[in-house]
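# nightly structure sweep
# worker-07 picked up a monomer target from the shared queue
# config: single-sequence mode, recycle default, output format = structure tokens
# input follows
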Amino acid sequence: MRQGPENRTFVDRFRELLARGQRTSLDRYLAATVQEAFAEPGCPLCRLLSQKERRSLESLLWEQVNDPMTADRLAAARGFCWEHTWALVPAGAAVHSHLGVAILLERILRDAYRHGQTPHSLERWLVPEDPCPICEWLATAEESLLWATAELASHDPRLLLEQPGVLCRPHAAALVRLTSAFPWDVWETRVAHLRPRWSHLEQLAHDVGRRPWHLPQPAALPECCPHCLATLPQRDRTWAWFLHQREPSAEGIALEPCLGHAGAEDFLHCRVALAELLDDLAAFIAAADYRFRGELTPGQRSSWLRAIARLVGTVPSAGVHERGRPFRM
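# output follows
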């Protein structure tokens, strides 16, 4: 099993990056990109990472849904982490179709159905062999952006202290670990001066980092996991944002356990429900064929969204990449 980026400190990853590349000069395009990002309010690195995240997911849904190498990688990773699985909702809307979402998730859920024939075998399947590919891409991009920021600030400290952009606290802390020249006390004074002008959301973004692209609203979903609804909150960037906008579930909502909580239910019922969902997904995918004649049921039309809820659950601790992982701010 490969070690995921969440299991290594930033300094370890950064040193590994330097050992691989041994960069001696800063790429001019990267330098210009970082400098331009500091010209706007908010954390410039969070903004650039959000753009990278969106481009990656949209490109995957537009170009790589039927790519065999992508399919193998997602099978080994059991899909994406909780945050990036739910990000498929707006990413699918951006490419004007959730068909790609259905195709990707149908493969993963069918693999879970095939290999998870008993509670024990399902638990084994729920241990990913690879990290979330989007998290891995973003970790590499974050290393490059922090390295570029450190290089630029070493030549011109005003980048960190006088530009409209202000690093969020997590990125400022990462930069401190990277370079002893970071003016932490001056940065803290500037943040204290600016903070009263920020909205509550701006303060939250500064304290914990960027907002996830999409956070599920249980009240608006076709189904929810009853165990997810009863989960106690954790301390984590995604949880902080999730709790900020969480609403109570709707009356009469369908309650189907997600894969992460299937062991706490009647396992046979869970397998039957998963088989029915796979049938609905197959019908949704087949309806995209121009030869299709017929009408989809409401359950078939919402199958791609139900697949997301079934795969990773509706709270940021139920996905295969979050189960058993220690949470930290």
